[in-house]
Amino acid sequence: MTGRLSQDIDQHGEWGSEENAWDPETAEVGIQLFANAVQVWSMFQRRPVTVFMAAEAFNCAPARIREAVEHHYWMFLKSDLIEHEGE
């Protein structure tokens, strides 16, 4: 894991202005769109997925993954594991 991820520093800016879209003006993604991507990716891993695994896969800080998971209505964190409703 890179030092950048372990330090929990994010090179990305704020979330995009539209929750469910990509903002072409700022090149930022909406939090719900990103959370949906994390959900689909984590479900297809077919194994337990941690915040750090997702951060590495999405090339972002673990804090960004945590925020997206907490925002999503069908995901939650159990310690550092990403869980899904109905599992």
Please give a structural write-up.
The chain is an alpha+beta fold. The protein has one domain (18-84). Helices cover 40% and strands 14% of the residues. It contains four helices and four strands, in the order αββαααββ. The protein has helices spanning 3-6, 31-43, 51-58, 62-71; strands at residues 22-23, 28-29, 75-78, 81-84. The strands form two sheets. It has a two-stranded antiparallel ribbon with strand order 1-2. A two-stranded antiparallel ribbon has the order 3-4. A hairpin with a 2-residue loop joins strand 3 (75-78) and strand 4. Helix 3 crosses helix 4 (62-71). The longest helix is centred in the middle third of the chain and has 13 residues, at 31-43. The N and C termini lie far apart (28 Å). Residues 1-9 have low confidence and may be disordered.
Keywords summarizing the entry:
4 helices; disordered N terminus; 4 strands; two-stranded antiparallel sheet; alpha+beta; single chain; 87 residues
Helix-strand blueprint:
Elements: H1 3-6, E1 22-23, E2 28-29, H2 31-43, H3 51-58, H4 62-71, E3 75-78, E4 81-84
Antiparallel strand pairs: 1-2, 3-4
Helix pairs in contact: 2-4, 3-4
Number of spatially distinct domains: 1
Largest sheet: 2 strands, antiparallel
The main sheet orders its strands as: 1-2
Uncertain runs: 1-9
Q: Averaging pLDDT over every residue, what do you get?
A: 84
Q: Which structural category fits the helices and strands? A: alpha+beta
Alpha-carbon Rg, integer: 13 Å
Q: Quick one: how many beta strands?
A: 4
Question: Helicity level, as a percent range?
Answer: 40-55%
Separation of the first and last Cα atoms: 28 Å
SSE order: HEEHHHEE
**Count of helical regions:** 4
Task: Using the alpha-carbon principal axes, give the shape.
Answer: globular
Binned strand content: 5-15%
